[in-house]
Specification:
The complex is a heterodimer of chains A (420) and B (479). Chain A is an alpha/beta fold and 420 residues long. Chain A has three domains: 1-122 and 260-328, FAD/NAD(P)-binding domain; 125-257, FAD/NAD(P)-binding domain; 329-420, no CATH class. Chain A is built from eight helices and 28 strands. Chain A has helices at residues 15-27, 55-58, 64-78, 142-150, 167-178, 197-204, 264-268, 306-324, and strands spanning 2-11, 32-35, 51-53, 62-63, 81-83, 88-92, 97-100, 108-117, 121-123, 139-141, 154-155, 159-163, 182-187, 211-212, 215-221, 228-233, 246-249, 252-255, 259-261, 293-295, 333-339, 345-347, 350-353, 359-365, 370-379, 382-392, 398-403, 411-418. Chain A is globular, with a radius of gyration of 22 Å. The N and C termini of chain A lie far apart (65 Å). By secondary structure, chain B is of the alpha/beta class. Chain B folds into three domains: 2-45 and 150-219 and 319-359, FAD/NAD(P)-binding domain (3-Layer(bba) Sandwich); 82-146 and 222-314, D-Amino Acid Oxidase, subunit A, domain 2 (D-Amino Acid Oxidase, Chain A, domain 2); 380-463, BFD-like [2Fe-2S]-binding domain (Arc Repressor Mutant, subunit A). Helix content of chain B is 30%, strand content 24%. In chain B, strands 10-3-2-14-22-21 form a six-stranded mixed beta sheet. In chain B, strands 15, 17, 18, 19 and 20 form a five-stranded antiparallel beta sheet that branches. In chain B, strands 1-13-12-11 form a four-stranded mixed beta sheet, with no helix packed on it. In chain B, helix 1 crosses helix 9 (342-359) and helix 11 crosses helix 13 (446-457). Classes of the chains: A alpha/beta (420), B alpha/beta (479). Strand 11 of chain A pairs antiparallel with strand 25 of chain B.
Chain lengths: 420, 479
């Protein structure tokens, strides 16, 4: 078997892997290698040809390719090595080895000082959410349709219903409209939007595409190609009210019903997975339960903005490099980071306390939309960080920065406090 | 006009098994099917079990054939390179009423000459299957109940028959059967007329319509829908045996078992319906599966489902497996009432049909060049690292993983398309190599499979179907 040695091996050359690679190199790791299954770097951003990326990070509105272009330029400049067309089959965290296929070299073993998982996520499917009916052609996840349209220049249909108001769904509503398709409606089970508000405005409202909140698709019709879907409102328990079911004709249904971190390799390696995020449990260094393995981006938790992925991944790259060089801070103690009122999950879930004072960013998502709230982190009864927010909602990531020197006890809790 | 000796109508399990058996003899055979792919309808969407026949009606043709067929699978699947596992079935009795019925079920098994059925105590069953309902009072163990990938099996039969000279006419609908002086003359299809001496009606759901064409409409076929769930390989609650409910007077009930690929299969429902094409799933049906199976395996996690589907079994009215030849219609062989045991008994039926042809005067001579061995598509993911390395070096397409959920390489997909009776559609690829059958259900590999199919078959992407004509995947190019 072909063998390669490196200091930091990064699995995945999407935005997470690219950011981790730059910071690992800048931190001083000598040989940094990105292992990518596609024939090009950039990951899913390659098919995100719309603008809206980089507003926080670069203060500019970039397209997906422009955004990752900044990173690919940088890794070239820094001398990060890249193996394309290489699918990782196994991560052996004890031996710090990654086994992958490569058409040119055959089966390849990468031996590393540390490993960064940056495999991203995949889409939930029609079957995951159990939409009954037939199984005709014309049912696509929004991302698969986006790939066909934007990377393969292939149109998937002419009359479209979209289930789920996730960002990719809304962006595809606009994209399909621009390509001449009729988007009949976007149907959302929840009574609120799943994605970013700006996408609703720019992708639906601006094109007059109706958004049906608190509705769902109850069944799919058509034997060969989809001919229509039944749409019904749902009650407060999200059960469809079948008496109000209506047939909506279409030849295509796109599903934008959520993303799931892709952790097959992680689970196979026995690394601990969080049941809420479906990603590995990490500390503020983005280190998993296996010390030599770090993780970042959507493989850890599904982010709303790539800008957040980049900064989180820079942490992972930085500390993976330090681990490989044996320079990770000495942890004096580990404390838990837990969820409080109206918080669905937090990331990281563990914090290591060392002598090094740090600013630690804790990312989290809320359970329910709320207005006029305070985001707070507290140890016992002591609030150690807080900030006011006019609005929080589950589709948008929140974050709070805490000062490691203020942490006391065994636990820090993040919560959303409602203002009176 | 095309000319052959035998036209087999229907490329499902029974049709392909008959064709496979006939391919050992010096006789020309043509299999006609309205679908674009072999594998039939009911034959590819069922419980994927090779039965022992323990619960058949004793003394019937069905009992004889199922019981005889079971023992043929070890050797046949070996020579056809089809994965097959004898995992055994258990019938746990949860209630006292069910427990009291066990002797009767065991006695019936004996009357079917299935003598290896054993009684197990509740504790023994829980040891065999820790996820069973802890209230289990005892039950039966049927060791030779087995699992198989039904499509792969039928495809292998068809492919091997094809290698041995059997022709297939796919996507051809039978419109009429012409007879002359009480003899079969020809079969008229949407793809032309075929002169033939024999017609074997193994058209499953449609066998009544075929029978009507020759004036032998003695029965009707009603479609009985069975809905299923497939659960993720990583689901938290799995079983290692086929876990069957104690049947009631009304239904055989819903089971849970592993598939050949490590997923869990849960179902089916049994719903009679008018339509022979409506294979939709329903929330009522799916909900009933979850509720019923929880009695057997309380912790089954239906939320781990990666897909749901339904199949239609051809339910004969009046009931029962029938093999018919007619004195006033020479050359016509009618098979009807092939139901849930059809997959199992297909191979015995193949032998039975050939025997009956000989008995009725057909002089069949064995070929001396019959090729019994078939090699399946190499599964990259199941090879050792050394073999994987070697495969990639011999054919770099093995290094290109297309389906990441199931680790299916481009080389496997190309093989599936280019081998005899190869895949022409996205679903046909999926059935052969499982690209798109994993947890993302083709989200990542679907677009790539469309491109590979277009490239390998020299068609435009707009001509690539999901399965049959009309199921186009894409509509054209972007602006």
């Amino acid at each position: 078997m072909y063998c390669i040695k490196c200091d930091v091996a990064i699995i995945g050359g999407g935005p997470a892997g690219l950011a981790a690679a730059t910071s690992a190199k800048e931190e001083g790791a000598d040989k940094v290698l990105i292992i990518e299954r596609d024939n090009a770097l950039g990951g899913i951003l390659q098919q995100c040809i719309h603008p809206g990326f980089g507003l926080t990070r670069f203060n500019e509105e970039l397209t997906g390719p422009e955004y990752y272009g900044r990173f690919t330029d940088k890794i070239a400049e820094l001398g990060v090595e890249v193996m394309l067309n290489s699918m990782v089959l196994e991560v052996n965290d004890k031996r710090k080895e990654v086994i992958c296929t490569n058409s040119e070299y055959g089966l390849t073993c990468v031996q590393a000082g540390s490993i960064v998982l940056a495999m991203g996520c995949r889409e939930r499917t029609r079957a995951n959410i159990v939409v009954p009916g037939t199984r005709p052609a014309g049912l696509y996840t929004a991302g698969a349709a986006q790939r066909l349209v934007n990377r393969q220049n292939i149109m998937v249909g002419k009359k479209v219903v979209i289930l789920g108001s996730g960002d990719i769904g809304m962006i595809m509503a606009r994209r399909m409209t621009l390509e001449g398709a009729k988007v009949v409606m976007v149907v959302e089970l929840m009574s609120y939007l799943a994605g970013l508000t700006r996408n609703r405005v720019q992708c639906l409202d601006d094109f007059g595409i109706p958004l049906k909140l608190a509705h769902t698709i109850t069944r799919i019709e058509g034997n060969e190609r989809v001919t229509g879907v039944y749409v019904a409102p749902v009650d407060e328990n999200k059960k469809p009210i079948l008496e109000k079911e209506e047939l909506v004709e279409c030849d295509t249904v796109l599903f934008s019903v959520g993303l799931i971190p892709e952790n097959e390799l992680t689970s196979k390696a026995g690394i601990e997975i969080n049941r809420v995020t479906n990603g590995p449990l990490v500390n503020q260094y983005m280190q998993t339960s296996s010390p030599a393995v770090f993780a970042c981006g959507n493989v850890v938790h599904v982010n709303d903005l790539v800008d957040n992925v980049s900064s989180e991944s820079e942490q992972a790259g930085k500390y993976a490099a330090r681990f490989a060089m044996n320079k990770l801070p000495d942890a004096k103690k580990e404390i838990k980071c837990t969820v409080g009122r109206n918080v669905r999950y937090v990331c990281p879930q563990k914090l290591l306390i060392s002598d090094e004072a740090e600013k630690i960013s804790i990312y989290f998502r809320v359970l329910e939309p709320e207005l006029n709230v305070t985001l707070a982190a507290r140890c016992g009864d002591t609030v150690i960080a807080q900030k006011k927010e006019f609005r929080v909602n589950p589709g948008e990531m929140n974050h709070i920065v805490i000062d490691s020197s203020k942490l006391t006890g065994d636990e820090v809790t993040v919560e959303v406090v409602k203002e009176d | 006009m095309l000319k052959t000796d035998v036209v087999v109508i229907g490329a499902g399990a029974v049709g392909c098994a008959i064709a496979h058996e006939l391919s050992k003899y010096k006789i020309d055979v043509l299999v006609v099917d309205m679908n674009e792919d072999v594998g039939g309808d009911a034959s590819k969407s069922n419980s994927a079990i090779i039965h022992t026949g323990y619960d058949a009606a004793p003394g019937t043709l069905e009992s004889q054939l199922v019981v005889a067929a079971n023992s043929m699978y070890d050797e046949l699947t070996q020579s056809l390179d089809v994965p097959f596992k004898r995992i055994g079935a258990i019938l746990p009795a949860i209630t006292q009423e069910q427990f009291d019925r066990l002797p009767e079920i065991k006695e019936k098994a004996f009357r079917n000459h299935v003598y290896d059925v054993e009684f197990k105590t509740g504790a023994e069953l829980l040891e065999m299957e820790p996820n069973l309902n802890p209230e289990v009072k005892g039950g039966l163990y049927i060791p030779r109940e087995s699992i198989i990938d039904p499509f792969i099996f039928v495809q292998a039969l068809a492919e091997n028959a094809n290698t041995n000279g059997v022709e297939f006419m796919l996507g051809a609908r039978v419109k009429d059967i012409k007879t002359e002086n009480g003899k079969i003359k020809s079969v008229v299809t949407s793809c032309g007329e075929i002169e033939t001496r024999y017609v074997i009606n193994s058209a499953g759901l449609y066998c009544d319509e075929i029978a009507e064409m020759v004036g032998k409409a003695e029965y009707k076929v009603v479609a009985r829908k069975g809905q299923f769930y497939i659960l993720d390989k990583n689901t938290s609650c799995k079983v290692e045996h086929i876990v069957l409910p104690i049947p009631t007077k009304v239904t055989k009930g819903k089971l849970m078992c592993p598939t050949m690929h490590g997923n869990m299969l849960v179902g089916p429902t049994a719903e009679d319906q008018e339509s022979k094409v409506d294979k939709s799933t329903t929330s009522a049906g799916l909900d009933s599966i979850a509720a019923d199976v929880k009695n057997l395996v309380p912790n089954v996690n239906i939320r781990d489902t990666i897909t749901q589907y339904s199949g239609l079994r051809p339910n004969r009215n009046p009931e029962g497996l029938h093999f018919d030849m007619y004195e006033d219609l020479e050359g016509y062989i009618n098979l009807s009432g092939v139901r849930s045991t059809g997959l199992t008994l297909s191979v015995a039926m193949g032998k039975y049909v050939v025997q009956q042809m000989m008995y009725h005067g057909e002089e069949l001579e064995l070929k001396d060049n019959f090729i019994s061995e078939r090699k399946g598509i190499i599964k990259f993911s199941e090879q050792t690292p050394e073999v994987q390395d070697k495969l990639i070096k011999e054919n770099p397409l093995y290094g290109n993983v297309i389906c990441r959920c199931e680790t299916i390489t481009e080389a496997e997909i190309v093989d599936a398309i280019n081998r005899p009776l190869g895949a022409k559609s996205v679903d046909a690829v999926k059935r052969r190599v499982r690209a798109g059958m994993g947890r993302c259900q083709g989200g990542f590999c679907g677009p790539k499979v469309i491109e590979i199919l277009a490239r390998e078959t020299g068609r435009s992407t707009t001509d690539i179907n999901k399965n049959n004509p009309g199921s186009y995947m894409v509509t054209g190019t972007t602006r």
